[in-house]
Amino acid sequence: MIAEGGFRMILCNPRIIKTMPGRKTDRPDAEWIADLNRHGMIPSSYVTTLPIIELRESARAQKAMGHDVTKYKNRVHNILQRSNIKLTSYVSDIFEGSGRKLLNLLLNGEVINLDIVAACMHGRMKHSPEQILLAMDGRLSANDRQLIDIQMAMLDSFQKRLAELDTLIGEQLKPFLELYLRLQTIPGVSERTAGIIIAEVGADTKAFETVNHLASWSGLAPGNNESAGMVKRAGVTHGNKYLKTAMVTAAMGAKRK
User: Fold this and answer.
1) SS3 for 222?
2) Which of 57, 83, 119, 143 counts the highest number of beta carbons within 10 A?
């Protein structure tokens, strides 16, 4: 890309040039890289347009925040398990709906009986109030309640921010709506996966000479490990971990269908 002043800027993956022979310390290192560039030996990394970059940053922030949500949920699960409260064995989601109501009963520290438990349960729950009450028969200390309350407050904040990110990503995807909808016609590609594909690859594939180049850049092209006529199993390349994860998820979804 051309920067201010007319200079041609190259963004290069250091993993590519570190294998090239040369001096690798401080000033000689800079001279060595400049010499490689003069000889056209430094391949430039893929740099897309600003709208795609902004969409990519939003999508990656959403993914990172989703991981944080999982961490906080796991902390709540761990506290309940060591307190001998097996609510998660009977309720699929203790952070929404009836599960949240039952969890609030534990956090409030009030006396829990069968009628109170039954009032918190919706009609689609498979287990009986007696089973749920028995699963809640553990011991939560005051410190445990406070810790769970803190984790729940963090989760509520994350959920609010995730909703804001969903709105932002929806606005950023509007210029690519036709492509966004077309990608979802591919078996296994959900709305979230389609958004990730556009965010990581861009609105077109002009930067990639062939489909093989795109597969390699994605990290979905297996290596070739052959010696003395023997072919050994080789793993895929590093590639773009965000796109790779999305494509593997789409493949597993297509397989189930």
Assistant:
1) strand
2) 83
